[in-house]
């Protein structure tokens, strides 16, 4: 059954919400109706020399208006191009891609680090349970007020300018927080530390991974991660992040 | 208007095929493309046993192209025979299986396993730049290439396509070696060995350090090599290297390719192969070409 679509979306609004971090609302034809928290879209550049789509996580889903929100950081020429788009601009996208977060309504940690924070907003809106939302930043904050509407917010900053000085696990320990389930997205060292923490405490943990992608649909095998068991599709110890993920049960993957 | 072409006795409804490694076994792309509209599907390389492939990152974008070093990750021939061939049999398209290996015996084992399978052609990958053993080692020495072609040809029940590497001094020498070894068809070009360095991280952009450059950046090299090989041997050629649209496909056909493969363009637009089929028909109508075979090697 067809569940992903290539569309020309229209930029509804775009603003810079922190230095180099942009929030873009897109009007879609069918993608928003199919999208779930934790999934992503492939965003294509207009400049023909940039061939590969940029995978960007979904930050909010507005099914009533068939709109999607993405929040991304400008890290290269592709995202720079997106950041220059104005209301009414057309942009090619493919999605929704990947599996998304399983919605299990138990006392939860939603942990986001840096540009891994945006998908936590879509998840926080969908999950109806006690939520401790732990956000890690280098220095400048974004999305913290919107996330605060959906749970208790704890912040960690590397420079100590806000909340706990240190990382998200430091914030969890400092505030003596506890959870029955963990959802996390962010840089690999953060995910690795969370995986270790969760294994110690025996907490079910879902991690959203990231890797350089080409096709975005599971064909090219560029964005694999190591899996503990032989994967049923690849028949080796590799899972496809774009298709089998990006969300994996922590003990399934080696990071 | 006739778009049918013939590769060693196998008739394709049109010259458009998928380039190995960019299209899996078609399943993922079947949401975007009616595979029955394609002349053939060339599968990702399959070996006698499962291969894990290279560490990540496996790809990097470059100006007008990309570098990949996937390392021929594949599930092995048994899973392929049981899952991928039945999937492709649902469509009215030719099945072209890309075969990879580390030793001559590995290749022969796969070829023999496919003997009784409903597969139309075998493409022998002796040109992958991203695996340390086998692969390109066979494709850069004319004597080795001729020898492995002979061994495979002895065992193959389907016509064999030898896929040539551009990473050689004289590609016509390799083409002649494959022809002498009994190849039925040649496909070219595989990727050009390249490198990208991330200056911010001061590290190689792909974990394998080097990778294969593909995409429109390599197209002029590919067209030139197809032209040279077409004038050096009498075998039919499947041309590829940076084909993004029907105009590019026609260019390869005019240079001497009987069929073409579309690779990196699938990442830019998952529906591109079917659009190229339509675009070739439009070109033929525009220039009143009755038979696509008139265009093959028409520019001399």
Automatic annotation (TrEMBL), chain A:
FAD binds at residues 54-57, 71-73, 78-79. [2Fe-2S] cluster binds at residues 215, 220, 223, 242. Keywords: 2Fe-2S, Electron transport, FAD, Flavoprotein, Iron, Iron-sulfur, Metal-binding, Pyrimidine biosynthesis, Transport. Pathway: Pyrimidine metabolism; UMP biosynthesis via de novo pathway; orotate from (S)-dihydroorotate (NAD(+) route): step 1/1. Gene3D superfamilies: Dihydroorotate dehydrogenase, electron transfer subunit (2.10.240.10), Nucleotide-binding domain of ferredoxin-NADP reductase (FNR) module (3.40.50.80), Translation factors (2.40.30.10). Its cofactor is [2Fe-2S] cluster; FAD. Coiled coil: none annotated. InterPro entries: Cyt_c3_hydrogenase_gsu, Dihydroorotate_DH_ele_sf, Dihydroorotate_DH_Fe-S-bd, Dihydroorotate_DHASE_ETsu, FAD-bd_FR_type, FNR_nucleotide-bd, OxRdtase_FAD/NAD-bd, PyrK_electron_transfer. Binds 1 [2Fe-2S] cluster per subunit. Binds 1 FAD per subunit. GO terms for molecular function: 2 iron, 2 sulfur cluster binding; electron transfer activity; flavin adenine dinucleotide binding; metal ion binding; oxidoreductase activity. GO terms for biological process: 'de novo' UMP biosynthetic process. Residues 4-103 form the FAD-binding FR-type domain. HAMAP family: DHODB_Fe_S_bind. PANTHER family: DIHYDROOROTATE DEHYDROGENASE B (NAD(+)), ELECTRON TRANSFER SUBUNIT, DIHYDROOROTATE DEHYDROGENASE B (NAD(+)), ELECTRON TRANSFER SUBUNIT-RELATED. Belongs to the PyrK family. Responsible for channeling the electrons from the oxidation of dihydroorotate from the FMN redox center in the PyrD type B subunit to the ultimate electron acceptor NAD(+). Heterotetramer of 2 PyrK and 2 PyrD type B subunits. This is Dihydroorotate dehydrogenase B (NAD(+)), electron transfer subunit.
UniProtKB/TrEMBL annotation, chain B:
It holds the Pfam family DHO_dh. Its cofactor is FMN. GO terms for biological process: 'de novo' pyrimidine nucleobase biosynthetic process; 'de novo' UMP biosynthetic process. Substrate binds at residues 44, 68-72, 125, 190-191. GO terms for molecular function: dihydroorotate dehydrogenase (NAD+) activity. GO terms for cellular component: cytoplasm. It comes from the Bacteria. Residues 6-284 form the Dihydroorotate dehydrogenase catalytic domain. Keywords: Cytoplasm, Flavoprotein, FMN, NAD, Oxidoreductase, Pyrimidine biosynthesis. The active site is at 128 (nucleophile). Binds 1 FMN per subunit. Its EC number is 1.3.-.-. FMN binds at residues 20, 44-45, 98, 125, 163, 189, 215, 241-242, 263-264. PROSITE patterns: DHODEHASE_2. Pathway: Pyrimidine metabolism; UMP biosynthesis via de novo pathway; orotate from (S)-dihydroorotate (NAD(+) route): step 1/1. It is found in: Cytoplasm. It catalyses: (S)-dihydroorotate + NAD(+) = orotate + NADH + H(+); (S)-dihydroorotate + A = orotate + AH2. Catalyzes the conversion of dihydroorotate to orotate with NAD(+) as electron acceptor. Belongs to the dihydroorotate dehydrogenase family. Type 1 subfamily. This is Dihydroorotate dehydrogenase.
